[in-house]
Design a protein that fits this description.
Layout: H1 14-18, E1 20-31, H2 70-82, E2 86-87, E3 90-91, E4 94-97, E5 107-110, E6 117-118, E7 121-127, E8 134-148, E9 152-154, E10 163-165, E11 172-178, H3 185-202, E12 214-224, E13 234-239, H4 242-261, E14 269-274, E15 279-285, H5 289-292, E16 295-296, E17 303-304, H6 307-315, H7 321-330, H8 336-342, H9 346-356, H10 362-375, H11 379-383, H12 391-402, H13 408-420, H14 426-432, H15 441-454, H16 456-463, H17 470-480, H18 487-500
Parallel strand pairs: 13-14
Antiparallel strand pairs: 1-11, 1-12, 2-6, 3-17, 4-5, 4-16, 6-8, 7-8, 8-11, 9-10, 12-13, 14-15
Helix pairs in contact: 3-4, 7-8, 9-10, 9-12, 12-13, 15-17, 15-18, 17-18
Length: 501
């Protein structure tokens, strides 16, 4: 292998990199949320003690036979339908032979010649790295296939030995392979973001990259701009976040350009990415298809997806982000910004619709969720649906503002109180804490007169045309009422008294 080199400061100018373009393809592995493994009844659960979710089938004892998990097939078809793929009706599994210790069989059960989903694509919105302009493109999918995951090799427990945890071995996976159509790191990141959003909407994978249930390998090659041929591709593994996928694309692109410009040769190999340094290092030369010696598995019969089965899967498909986005705009009358943010996560979209079942002020519900509610959510609380208020209680708060019982200002205080006392009715809480809006004209007029008397110079300035002082007067009245005054009524009384003087 030719040693890596770095361009000299003079050579490593942006225009040198601009002479090349990256050609990127992604392989995304999604662990499916089935209760059991793909070919065995072992539990499919993250976080168990090592080597507890295993059986004689996982450990490949002689005489054991695999049996395909029907739910795994349905989940794969769901993803294919969501991506506009063609669904393969006659499915065969093959043995992919390799002799790493993470699969005790010595082979992985996968799909070789006939993946379950073919074609399709995922639309993304990306940013041009040169101009900063946003553009829309579709990342084309080559195929999606089903396979089993390998176990986990642990190298940090001993200097001389590798520890093996077979809990993950046999976990059902779909592998999504794109065409080599990705050109920038941002496109790669946006595609992976959309994949994660889709699998969560479909409820087939939790999408947690930190737990390894969503993993991505990046294939990168370079070529001169304007060329149509494909260069030698390098696969980069060990990418545990969307940000690191983007960093790996940029890093590998620059490495290959520098290697080419200094007379080196790009070798087809597998590399690992170090998130701390932002650089990759060689692991091994890439295996070829012949190395795997694929052949149909003799222990598994072909799986035929009938018209009836496919129709049943299609009928059970949930609403996808694009459908909900359109619904939020047309049915609920939300602007683009609200609809985009609320459909970013399935949990948020479901919560919004649940709130709207109890109130008709759809825009106010959106404002509360995008503001105070979302402000208290992180990814874990969102995934666990730990919203600060139930949908019914948030809707009740929206209606209290709408009917004038509490002001918008007082509603912020009530929002906090409702979390502290979830069993107390919102109206009772408002009464107990003096948050019910004061609409007593006589009492409010007295407060207004006090404020105007305290600021005679400001009153004079207002009369001379400085009309923006009205907001100051309203604020002072609200302070005196401890936020309980009806702002609309306060405005009316102030306008009347200021004109009368």
């Amino acid at each position: 292998m030719v040693a890596e080199a770095t361009l000299s400061p003079d050579a490593a100018q942006p225009d040198v990199y601009a002479q090349y373009e990256a050609v990127v393809g992604l392989e995304v592995h999604c662990q499916l949320l089935t209760n059991s493994k793909i070919f065995a009844a072992d539990a499919n659960a993250f976080g168990a003690e090592p080597n507890t979710n295993i059986s004689v089938i996982t450990l490949a004892h002689p005489g054991t036979l695999p049996k395909l998990n029907r739910k795994a097939v349905e989940y794969a078809v769901r993803m294919g339908l969501a991506c506009g793929c063609d669904i393969t009706r006659h499915n065969v599994f093959a043995r992919k032979n390799y002799f790493y210790p993470d699969l005790p069989k010595g082979y992985q059960l996968s799909q070789d010649k006939g993946p379950i989903c073919v074609g399709g694509g995922i639309p993304v919105k990306a940013k041009d790295p040169q101009t900063g302009q946003t553009y829309h493109t579709t990342i084309q999918i080559h195929h999606i296939h089903l396979e089993e995951d390998a176990g986990k090799s642990i190298h940090d427990g001993d200097d001389w030995a590798t520890q093996l945890d077979y809990n993950r071995a046999g976990t059902p996976l779909i592998e999504m392979v794109t065409e080599p159509c990705i050109r920038t790191a941002d496109e790669a990141g946006q595609y992976l973001t959309e994949v994660r959003r889709l699998v969560r909407y479909l409820d087939i994978c939790d999408g947690n990259m930190e737990e390894g249930s969503l993993r991505c390998d990046v294939n990168v090659s370079i070529r001169p701009r304007g060329a149509t041929h494909l260069g030698t591709k390098v696969e980069v593994k060990n990418l545990n976040s969307i940000r690191n996928v983007m960093r790996a694309v940029d890093s590998e692109f620059r490495r290959q350009v520098e290697l080419t410009e200094t007379g080196g040769t790009i070798v087809q190999e597998t590399r690992t990415f170090d998130a701390a340094t932002g650089r990759s290092s060689a692991m091994r030369e890439k295996e070829t298809m012949n190395d795997y010696r694929y052949f149909p598995d003799p222990d598994l019969t072909p799986v035929v997806i009938s018209d009836e089965w496919l129709a049943d899967i299609r009928a059970q498909m949930p609403a996808l982000p694009t459908e909900l986005y359109q619904k939020f705009i047309t049915h609920y009358g939300l602007p683009d910004y609200d609809a985009s943010l609320l459909t970013d996560a399935k949990e948020l979209a479901d919560y919004y619709e649940a709130v709207c079942r109890h109130t008709t002020n759809y825009k106010a519900a959106s404002n509360w969720i995008m503001g105070p509610v979302k402000g208290q959510l992180n990814e874990k609380t969102l995934r666990d649906r730990q919203f600060p208020l139930s949908a019914e209680r948030l809707a009740a708060l929206v209606d209290l503002v709408d009917n004038g019982t509490v002001s918008q200002t007082a509603a912020q205080q009530l929002f906090a109180l409702m979390q502290q006392q979830p069993d107390v009715r919102p109206t009772d809480l408002a009464q107990q804490h003096g948050l019910v809006q004061n609409r007593n004209t006589d009492a409010l007029q007295a407060l207004v007169e006090e404020v105007l008397a305290a600021w005679p110079d400001k009153v004079e300035q207002y009369r001379k045309g400085k009309k923006n002082l009205l907001g100051m007067f309203v604020g002072e009245v609200m302070k005196k009422s401890k936020g309980a005054a009806d702002p609309k009524l306060v405005n009316e009384l102030l306008a009347k008294l200021l004109q009368a003087k």
